[in-house]
Amino acid sequence: MKRLRIAVIIFDPYPYEIRAQRLAEAAADAGVEVDAICLSLDSGARLPDAFNGVRIYPLPMARSIGAPLAVTTIEWVRFLALAAVKVTQLHHRHPYDVIHVHNMPDFLVFAALIPKLRGARVILDVQDVSPELMAAKAGKRLRRLLYTLAAAQERISTAFADYVVTVGWPFEQRLLARGVPQAKLTSFINSADPKVFPASLQGPIPFDARGAQGPFRFMFYGTISRRLGIDTAIRALALARQAEPQLELDIMGSGDDIAAFQALAAELGVRDVVRFRDAVAPGPELADFVVSHDAGIVSYHADGFADLLLPTKAYEMAWLRRPMIVSNTPAIRSMFRPESVMLCDSESPEEFAQAMVRLKRSAPLRTSLVANAAHDYERFRWEHERERYNALLQSLAETSSPVRELGLNQQAN
C-alpha cells in the first residue's frame, strides 16, 4: 500500500497547539509522512526540525499577542501567503495526498489551492467557529458586522474544503445549520493522548495522599483570557479562602490578560496564592502539572461562544483522575453528567467558591466525582478518535471510497 503524505498548516508554532499535535502524531504513528507548516516562536527560539515523527517547517514570522483585530488580520493574510508558497514548494517535490488546515482563520484553507488543483484533498479543521468567536470578542457596535463577515468567509472556506472536521457536537450543529453538508462533516474530540498523559500517572490526588494535610491546590491551564473565566476563578478563590485558608490556585498558559489577572489577584489579597506559569508544549511537563494538583477549575463565561467549547483540559483531568468544578454550559453537559463534575453558574464566583469549599472538605465527594467522570470519559478516549482520523485520511486519499460508509459522521452527544 502506498504510504500517505499529509501537510498540516496552522497559525501557531508546532507542537504548541495540542489538537494539531495530536492529530499529526496520530497519522505519523500510523506510518503517514507528516509535514507541519507553522509559525515561528515569538521568543525567537528555534523550533526543532522534527517532533515525534512530524517534520516541522516554521515560517519566518510570529504572531502578535494581544494585537487589535486589524493587525491580526494582516498577520493572517501574510501567513496565508507564506504558507501557500511553502506548501506548494513541498507538494511540487513530493506530492501530498491530504492537506489538513487548522483555523483560525478559516480562509487559511486557501493556502492549499495549488496542491488541491494538482490532486491533493483538503481538510478544514474548525477548532473555533469564527462567527461566534468574533461576536464574543467584538464590542456591541461591531458585533453584527463581524459576525456577518466571519460567517461569509466560513461559508466560502468550508465550501472549498473537501472535508470539514471540528471538535464536538456544539460546533458541528452550528456548521450544519450554516449549510455544511453532513456528508463532509464530522468531529474528532480533543481527548487525552495516552502518549502525553500515560495511564501510569493515574492515582490519588496529592491532598489525599498526604492524609488531607497541607494546601489544597486548584489548577487552570490553557489560554489566559477573560472570556475563559479566569477572573471568576480568582474571585471564587478569594471568597473560598475565607472559609478554607489553605486553598490555592495555579494558572498555566499564555494570553492577553495575564497582567490584568495578576492585578485582580493583588487587589483581592490573594496574589501570593494565585501563581502564574508560562505555557509548555504538550508532554511530560504538562502531565506533571496536572497530577501535581488536587482539582481543576473550568469557569468559562457564558458569552455565546464559550457555551460551545468542549475543554480539552476536562478530558485530560478526567483521564488523570482529578475532580473538576466547571461552568454549567450545554457543551460541558454534553460531556459529563451532573454527578461527574461540580456544575456552577458561569457568572457566579459565589457558587464556584462554595464548590471549592465543599470539594476540599469532602473526600467521598472527590472520590465519587473522579469515578463518575472517568466513566463518562470512556466514550471519548483518544484511541477511538485516532482510528477514525486515520480512516478519514485513507478515505480521502482513495477518492472512490465514500467517507460516509466509514462511520465517520458520528456525533459526540
In terms of topology, how is this protein built?
Elements: E1 5-9, H1 18-29, E2 33-38, E3 50-51, E4 54-58, H2 69-93, E5 98-102, H3 113-117, E6 121-126, H4 130-137, H5 140-160, E7 163-166, H6 169-177, E8 185-187, H7 206-209, E9 216-223, H8 230-240, E10 247-254, H9 258-267, E11 274-277, H10 284-291, E12 295-298, H11 312-319, E13 324-327, H12 330-335, E14 342-344, H13 349-361, H14 363-377, H15 382-397
Parallel strand pairs: 1-2, 1-5, 2-4, 5-6, 6-7, 7-8, 9-10, 9-12, 10-11, 12-13, 13-14
Antiparallel strand pairs: 3-4
Helix pairs in contact: 4-5, 8-13
Question: Any overview of this molecule?
Answer:
The strands form two sheets. The chain has an eight-stranded mixed β-sheet with strand order 3-4-2-1-5-6-7-8, with helices on both faces. It has a six-stranded parallel β-sheet with strand order 11-10-9-12-13-14, sandwiched between helices. The chain is built from 15 helices and 14 strands. Strand 1, helix 1 (18-29) and strand 2 (33-38) form a beta-alpha-beta unit. It folds into two domains: 5-191 and 381-406, Glycogen Phosphorylase B (Rossmann fold, 3-Layer(aba) Sandwich); 199-379, Rossmann fold (3-Layer(aba) Sandwich). It has 413 residues and is of the alpha/beta class. The protein is globular. It has helices at 18-29, 69-93, 113-117, 130-137, 140-160, 169-177, 206-209, 230-240, 258-267, 284-291, 312-319, 330-335, 349-361, 363-377, 382-397; strands at 5-9, 33-38, 50-51, 54-58, 98-102, 121-126, 163-166, 185-187, 216-223, 247-254, 274-277, 295-298, 324-327, 342-344. Helix 4 packs antiparallel against helix 5 and helix 8 (230-240) packs across helix 13.
